[in-house]
TrEMBL record:
Designated name of the protein: Arginase
Domain of life according to the entry: Bacteria
UniProt KW keywords: Hydrolase, Manganese, Metal-binding
Pfam families membership: Arginase (PF00491)
UniProt GO cellular component terms: cytoplasm
GO MF entries: arginase activity; manganese ion binding
SUPFAM superfamilies listed in its UniProt record: Arginase/deacetylase
Similarity comment: Belongs to the arginase family.
Amino acid sequence: NMHGMPLRILAGEGDEKLVQLGGFAPKVKPENIVLIGMRDLDFGEREYIKKHQIRTYTMADIDERGIRSVIEESIAYLKD
């Protein structure tokens, strides 16, 4: 089941044939990922995000803080 897995594969984990497409891995480092608008994460996704300390903003974060604030904070985080 590939649902929810493309980003993990791009980050260098998963089926080795897919991970090595293009001849290099990872395509993106977890510290360069920001997930915005997350609603429903399964246990495996939550564990992966926690393990790799991936910056994540839920829809509740957006509702509370506003999309502008979330986007500005995300850009500042990625610039560092």
